[in-house]
Task: structure prediction
Amino acid sequence: MTAVEEVFVVTSSGSGHLFPCIELCKHISSRNYKTTLILSSAVPSSFHPLLSTFEIHHSSAGDHPTQPQTGLDLETHLATRSNDKDSIRPLCAIIDFQMGWTKHIFWKFNVPVISFFTFGACAAAMEWGAWKCEASNMVSGEVRTIPGLPEEMVVTYSDCKRRPKRPSGTGGGGGGPPKPGDKPPWVPLVEGSVGLLFNTCDDLERPFINYLTNELGMPVCGVGPLLPEQYWQSHDLLIHDRLIRQSKNHSNCSEDEVIQWLDSKPRGSAIYVAFGSQLGPTMEEYPQLAGALEDSIRPFIWVIQSGSGLPNPNESDQGYVPHGLQAKVGDRGLIIRGWAPQLLILSHPSTGGFLSHCGWNSTVEAIGQGVPFLAWPIRGDQIYNAKLVVNYLKVGYMTLHGDTLEMVKREDIGQGIEKLMCDEEVHKGAAELRIKLGRSFPPSSEASLDVFRDFIIQKTI
Result:
């Protein structure tokens, strides 16, 4: 059947934004829409054949396209197609909220805009609630509840003050909370949208979706988790990353070597340690982590990205190196430098825990495989993703206990690993959540996509 309407999807740069947008495009195109992904970077060679792409100008000076040139490229593209009488009618534009400045271009052509969050609804709801309860005025030790959200999801002093600024050269995350009186930074980027979409589902975050709907006065839907089709089809089989996403990053370990190591370990015995490609512990904290893994009796896989611990690393920066650790732990540890097959590791039955920064993609990948967490959030949405995992879903622990801004220490990590790996209730809860989430794309998200389609059609009549 020929598509009669077109949906534009605008993605920000970076795999954490691109991959969810690609999966969203696939779900939309399956509903008989022409789907055009507008992006500033090349897409994988395995890109879905039903989709089209339009690549906007990419600045050679950095990772992000310059707004003036990007805006001109996009406006020229839309003007050309609007003057073509044979072009398909645009239904709407779904815009990654970080590209919210492009909404004004679509409005010039009377195209309704929907804002899309590649992370979950909890983080946005907590940021909004923290603003409403004036959490920026809190003092150390104080907690505040947010009316309309689960009672266990309180805002603490450390949530609002978490690493507002790092000393030069320490590495790790930066960027602090909004200044007193300021709304969350995403609010102006979504103003004028007819609705919001989140990379989540009702089974994970229904209270937070409802809260945002009531507070913002617009439709808010969960249309995720937007994971590869192979993820949902794997059931209890290993997921092979190399068959899903090609990586240009180098690694000292092949998938086969990772499988061989995991196969040699008892079921549920190994802890997987990995942070994001851009955010991680400081250079002072990495030795604490190495010491904790050395002290532990648990088998572990530790993924160390290039440039780990450095403030603004480039591709040639090695970053932190745990000198001598491999020799000390022997076959009990597998240290991977560079890229690692995360889906494979999480889907292997020997993996029993995940020490994670709680980036959203990593969070939903682990939840879907029934792997509980030792949460070590660095900044941004990770702080509230960790609260969701630990306080609301109850499938993990925090590395740091209480309302503290202290550096994570060796003892904190070691104690956290033991608590996580020994807690049968947490493991049971993670297994139950895996079953609840199901082994297919959530029906609630399928329904939300249909509801949103009908809503947009009514808006454009």
In short: The longest strand covers residues 89-96. Residues 31 and 450 are 9 Å apart (CA to CA). DSSP finds 17 helices and 15 strands in the chain. The radius of gyration is 22 Å.
